[in-house]
Amino acid sequence: MPGHIKKISGDDPDPSPWLCVSPELKTKLKAKPYDPKKSVWVPTKDGGYIEGLLESKDGVKVTVNVGGESKVYKEDVVDQVNPPKFDCSDDMAGLTFLGNACV
Fold it and tell me: Which residues lie closer than 8 Å to 45 by C-beta, 6 or more apart?
């Protein structure tokens, strides 16, 4: 058990509810809007990634619409988004794009 959780007695709890993806969630994720040429991942200040839509490309700089706001990024920090059918995928070998945000 992790250090912040004190085990009282009995077996460890079943982790299945947190590891298995429900069919309802997979259906919901497949229905999200996706454009293979415009959907991209952009880095956030806290080290994560957020999805945005590519608006324009000017040399090594790209303009991305993130949450209704246009931001400019270097082209090498932007990664393409995998199709929604790969959301919650069990195997990374089948991913179309294997960028930092995807793994």
Answer: none
